Structure formats: C-alpha cells, structure tokens
UniProtKB/TrEMBL annotation:
<dbReference type="InterPro" id="IPR003736">
    <property type="entry name" value="PAAI_dom"/>
</dbReference>
<keyword id="KW-0378">Hydrolase</keyword>
<dbReference type="InterPro" id="IPR029069">
    <property type="entry name" value="HotDog_dom_sf"/>
</dbReference>
<dbReference type="GO" id="GO:0005829">
    <property type="term" value="C:cytosol"/>
</dbReference>
<dbReference type="Pfam" id="PF03061">
    <property type="entry name" value="4HBT"/>
</dbReference>
<protein>
    <submittedName>
        <fullName>Uncharacterized domain 1-containing protein</fullName>
    </submittedName>
</protein>
<dbReference type="GO" id="GO:0061522">
    <property type="term" value="F:1,4-dihydroxy-2-naphthoyl-CoA thioesterase activity"/>
</dbReference>
<feature type="domain" description="Thioesterase">
    <location>
        <begin position="55"/>
        <end position="131"/>
    </location>
</feature>
<comment type="similarity">
    <text>Belongs to the thioesterase PaaI family.</text>
</comment>
<dbReference type="InterPro" id="IPR006683">
    <property type="entry name" value="Thioestr_dom"/>
</dbReference>
Amino acid sequence: MVDMTNDPDGSTGPTDLVGGENGAFIDYLGLEFTSVEADRVAATWVARPALHQPYGIVHGGVHCSVVETLASIGAGTWLGERGQVVGVNNNTDFYRAVSEGAMTSEATPLHRGRSQQVWIVETRDGDDRLVSRGQVRLQNLYPS
C-alpha cells in the first residue's frame, strides 16, 4: 500500500509517484504518473500482451486496477495527513476493446465529503477514444 503522506522522513507519498518508486503491481501494469494532484491524477500506460485475457484484448481487471489505483491516489492526496482512504466500490464500464498501444488515464473527483469520496477515471487510447470509464467510492479513515 502506498503511504499517502509526504513525511519528511522520506517515505513514499503520492506526489513522489511521478518518476518515483511505485510498487511491484503498479510497475507491472506499467503506469507512468504524469500528474498527481488533489484534483487530478493522470498516468500513461501501454496495452500489451502481458495484460491480455485469453481472447487477445486487455483484461477487464487491468482497467479496474487502473481505475482503483488512480482514484485511490487522488483521494489520498486530497485527504493528505488527515487520514487514509480505502476503496469500497469500483464500477468500471468498458467501451472499446484494445490489444496494444498507448493509453492515457485520468482521475477527477465527483464528490469529496467528510466520510467518503467518489472519483471518476477515464482511459483513452492513442486516438483519444474512450476505452473505459470507472467510478470508485472511497471511505476516508481518520486516526482514532
């Protein structure tokens, strides 16, 4: 789990993800973060055979993982040192099958409240066509 704080001790925080250490799963997905802000998280990645399901297209779980990752990072960035976030619902729709090529994913907040946040994540292909769109509801957890 990515530490969602920017502690002076050098621990990884969400703003460190741009060009930083991301963790094995994020690295396997190939996510390259281009923007990590409280109001927007963006990343690029490449659809490739290692991410395919048996029929030769990117597995739906990959899209769900990208959605959950970007939404969680955005929500955690916004909440900051006040607490942590956990995803409680991920609903992702698939609009276009892809097998290879550059992808761009962007997360933006739909709702940010004291107890929960909702983020929307869209993934587009190299021709700017919508490939998938997901919505993640996250619970804000505060220290007791």
